[in-house]
Design a protein that fits this description.
The chain is an alpha+beta fold and about 200 residues long. The protein contains 4 helices and 13 strands. It has a single domain, classed as Fumarylacetoacetate hydrolase, domain 2. The protein is about 15% helix and about 35% strand. It is globular and about 45 Å long. The chain binds zinc ion.
Length: about 200
């Protein structure tokens, strides 16, 4: 399975990193070795002094598909989750400046947190899901899928032009504003509404 990630999908997050608003979705991937194992702490890798949290809504693909049209995209997933796209921001900034791929900064071991899954039927509208991230009891990121530049079904349409979507593939749909560094002993809790989706410790 693969993890397909969307970058720069919330206007306020684009501003906070001083990025350009893209014409098309920014797409990158993480290998399955990036998935943080259940109940394990996240270890800050030795090659970075500035690992940022990016809380994101996740979509789990349930059906194989290629060139999926937007109006049929909803048939390709029925679970919604929450996760973290951990990013070694210092390394990513160096790679971006040189026009190099981001994998070392985004796809390292443990860089993908995948929380529990909720049935899509739990939501009236997947384009209006509120979510947040707390660190040590403080809310640091808050978002709503209504603020996405590319909505979930548009993301599925776009990425499936390039990659065949397979059962179990997971899409990270981009992070809202409020990204920032994590430090040892941080306790992170991700929420959809007020439902806890994951809880992890940083080491
Ligand atoms: Zn991200």
């Amino acid at each position: 399975m693969k993890l397909i990630c969307i970058g720069r999908n919330y206007a306020k997050h684009i501003e906070e990193l001083d990025n350009e608003r893209p014409e098309n979705p920014v797409v990158f991937m993480k290998p399955d070795s990036a998935i943080l194992l259940k109940k394990q702490p996240f270890f800050i890798p030795e090659f970075s002094n500035d690992v940022h949290h990016e809380v994101e809504i996740l979509i789990k693909i349930k059906k194989i598909g290629k060139y999926i049209e937007k109006q049929f995209a909803h048939k390709y997933y029925d679970e919604v989750g929450l996760g973290i796209d951990f990013t070694a921001r210092d390394l990513q900034s160096k790679l971006k400046a040189k026009g190099l791929p981001w994998e070392k900064a985004k796809a390292f071991d443990g860089a993908a947190v995948i929380g529990q899954w909720l049935p899509k039927t739990q939501f009236k509208n997947v384009d209006n899901i509120g979510f947040s991230l707390q660190i040590n009891g403080q809310t640091v990121q808050e978002g709503n899928t209504s603020h996405m530049l590319w909505k979930i079904d548009e993301i599925i349409e776009y990425v499936s032009k390039y990659f065949t979507l397979k059962i179990g593939d997971i899409i990270f749909t981009g992070t809202p504003a409020g990204v920032g560094p994590v430090k040892p002993n941080d306790q992170m809790i991700g929420l959809i509404g007020d439902q806890e989706m994951f809880k992890i410790k940083v080491k």
